[in-house]
User: Fold these one by one.
Assistant:
Number 1:
Amino acid sequence: MNSFWAQDVPLSWYLMLSAVLFSLGVVGFLIKRNLITMFMSIELMLNAVNLSFVTFAQQWHAVKGQIFVFFVMMVAAAEAAVGLAIIIAVFRARATLAVDRIDLMKL
Amino acid sequence: MHLILFFVFAGFCLAGAINLLIQSHPISSALSLIVVMTSLAVLYLLLGAEFLAAAQVIVYAGAIMVLFTIVVMLLNAGREARTLGSRVAWVVGFPAVVAILAVIATVILHLQGMGVARLSDGSTSTITSTDELGTVLFTKLLLPFEVTSVLLLIAILGAVALARPGNGDPQDNRERTAGK
């Protein structure tokens, strides 16, 4: 039992965790009816993918994998800023955040 | 030690992600997403990515989630109405989720079993220093880095332009049509 806790974490466990988190993000995107929470589910998916990037970078001792995660973070920051601005604009025009009632591209 | 930390923070991650799904208030979902991101930062540390752990806390758990919580409070987002969702989500979506999970799991287990990529290689002790990361980033990948700064600038301008009052304002539209 003691030797079990002392061993290193198999990297495939990180990948499994990443897969489960990604699937939870997809489920959240499908079942959530609120624009902001759906957006949060997308962020969850991005984070899950980042975790697998870091895991593979560790596996192959490659620095570029981690740099890719850095770029993904930058793009996610830009995406969050623009996406939330769009959500604010949509809320101003429709006064609702329920996706069932936002079904026209035209304002 | 690594294993205990992994179990604790992977548990936090999963609990936070599931809590994100079952909470109906957006602010609770946002707070549980912060839990997920912070525990992911600890997992990055376990994987030896110290710079990314710091960036995860600062950029994701800090900046992006602050933006989310501010928008939730600004729009006064209340309890979301539960509906059953579209039929497409039920017929195509959930089987697709199960399929994604199954495919990823089989591929990972396969790789581990075949020893092509020895994923259980006990290599978690090597740490990528910020020094190494910066050297590669500012020598080999300088152009993508600079392009990213332009992207961020465009995103700032786009966010300001989109969120400015009068953009798709119903009253504003009415006035415009009345003025015609």
Number 2:
Amino acid sequence: MKTITIISLLGLAACAATDIEDPAFEGHGANPWTELEREQREGPPRYASRIHSCTKMRVATLGNLLASRGVDLAAQDDLAAGKIFSASAVALGGPKYVDRIRETTELGIATASKLFDIYVQAAPEMIAKLPTSPDCMKNGTPAQLFDNNNHCVASGFSCLMGMPASPEHLAICNETVKRANTPDEGKRLAVAVLAAAAHTCE
Amino acid sequence: MKAAPLFLLVAACMPDPQPPPNGTPTDEWDDKLAEREVDYSSALRIAALRLTGELPTLTDIESVYLAPDEASKRTAYMELVRRYIDSPKYVRQMVALAKDVLRMGDNPDPQRPPELDSAPLFMAQVITENRSYLDLLTATSGTCPTYDATTNKFTAGDCNNGGTTTGLLTHPGMHEHFFGNLAFRRVRWVQETFACTAFPAEIAEAPIDVQGATPYTGKFPFTSIAGTANGGKVNFLSTDSVICANCHSNMNHIAPLFAHYDQGGTYSANFVVPLPLPGEPAVAMSDYLPTGEGMAWRFGVPVTDMASLGRAMAADKYIAECAIDRLWNWAMGKADIVDGGAKVPTATIEAEIIAFQAGGYKLRDAMYRVFTSDDFVKF
């Protein structure tokens, strides 16, 4: 186990050298400034390593998600969610193994923007077809995203997000629908917003 | 995280804090860890996405969420993680994971043998069949399998690229994909993939002044590798700018084994990798190591051939730790441990490493433990 002498790193000559044990640092060419910047952003490795990070969703996983919630990935319309998805592997951070490049795990702004584009375009398909998805049925009963009064339904949004829809989720959803010019516009925005929020991180 | 710089500054000028006798948290980071709460529903979503590539079904979501108490939630969660790992979709995910770990796959030319795919397929087979992870370094056959997604079955296949087979170390796809001068790109792949660190691989306890701008820090004697003064055509002993030997002290003791594979990944009894010098002279052992110096995985760990390298790596405790490091980072959504610098302190995964070693180095079993660990289910 190596140590990082923080005192020398920071150039604090006024106080005596104090070694801080950092089990993650093994001296393998790590740039101390990069390590310091990382600790400032994420906390020390003993903390950061034990909490979940916000990793980008894999491109293939996103495709599975969209398809399982009602999106036609074979759609050919340029503005269809499936077409945007299938044409956006690079923007979504997909791998390029021929160049020895693995899929990116960090979520960039361009990728996040592309994801939101996809969810906005996917929302009408999801509203129409999510209830018929086998993944979104329980005991043969389909989950609806909205009831007949255009209110957001917990089971439908739970299935959309992959986790239980909380009262806060439903409040945001209902408020989004209420504030829109039309119910259909509001429902589309609500689905896109909650899908994007839930699936920004894998 | 804006408090971190202040924390570091303060820490630099104060004695190391001693944990109080009752074991209570000692700083803000311990407090933050202690503040996490178990959330099986959030954990289930992540586990489903990682292990199956899909969201949990509504039935799965509610089986955890609607469970009457914490113990029931945990039971339901653990049963679902087990089911995910037993599902065919898990195999698909392990193929994808292996491609990312190995940085290989998606054979671009259907007219050619699918060797870029068979290396990650072999890794996925080792994981999903719950074989020893060390087979990746020691298997003597079956390292070029095929996979039928419709039947979800692997079919063992030999690589037939000449020479003996030693896990992925002799894999033709790897040798083709990472072909380069003096085989150093292959050596770097081995180091970063299986040891989880970039070169330099070993750091001596005390640096040595070699009359350069910076000292030599390798464990091997400085003159144990080739330079123009001891018979080599490339001066790895140069101290003019950087100290080349800091990395090459390890690289040169390994690379000759990888120099026997040509651009297509086929074994040759001769060295068949390029030497980037005018006239393209042939590579010789004297370009790596001076006369009398033997190859080695690490200082004090001699090897003579690829099989002994595989055994030496398999016996290196850091190889097993690296496997768990990578698994942990994948599960927790971290960046790559080398490219992204997402270090995992040994203390974080000590229990997983011990269980991994005691259980026969089975990554599939390790995945279940990690995805059901306290850290994974807390947010």
